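Support request, priority: normal
Reporter: lab tech (M.K.)
Component: structure prediction queue

Hi team, I submitted a job for N-acetyltransferase domain-containing protein from Cyberlindnera jadinii yesterday, and the status page still shows it as pending. I've pasted the exact input below so you can check whether something in the sequence is tripping the parser. The sequence length should be 225 residues. Please let me know if I need to resubmit or if it's stuck on your end.
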Amino acid sequence: MTKSSGGNIKILRFNQELFLKSPHAPKWASFFTDLINKGYDYNKRYGVIESTRIKDSSVFMTDLGLHKPESFMLLLVYEGDRSSIDESLRTTSKQIPIENVNMEVEPPINEDSVLGTIGGKLHEDPELGTGWELTGVVSFYRGVGRVLIERITSLAKEQGKSHLFCTVIYEHGLLDYYSKFGFVECQRRLLQTIDTETGMVQGGDLEDGICALRDFHIAFLSKRL
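Reply from support: The job had stalled in the queue. We restarted it manually and it finished. Here are the results:
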């Protein structure tokens, strides 16, 4: 862990193999489902999506796309005096150590120590090339998004990826946020309509089972590395 005067900060990396083969895989799926749904509930204030991000832990991997090659999740964890979190986050993201979580580690992790999550999965664009698409991006503390995006950017460069990709709901106001980190729209927005009787999203642009309060748009973003 990187140490500040009041606490320690580190990144835990969960590779796809752990979610598939660990004897504790179902418990990890349940842990991440609860954690990510908690973070995504913040977006319900926009009055668009009503359902949870992950329907239940049995579809954790498919809902986040973690069944795709090279998939992984990063968990930013802080232990210590919470009044020192800001000091720790000012650390250059590359200086925060990454620890690979092995198969035998048993969940859960204390949720109060988790500052945020971000995942990556392989994405191949016919025009832009091969990169990682972000998934499961959650922040529970101001400034955490920057740290996680900077770190996954560094990891993607180390792996020779040409781009990072991100799919967001336009009405959630995330275009301005991601533009701060070099992301730009890379194709036209897609309108998602709902069945007025059931509230379910129609069409196949997103995973099944999404319930919304109104029609909305998907925006596709990319960042050249």
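Residues 168 and 202 are 17 Å apart (CA to CA). Residues 2-162 form a domain with the Aminopeptidase fold (CATH 3.40.630). Let us know if anything else looks off. Ticket resolved.
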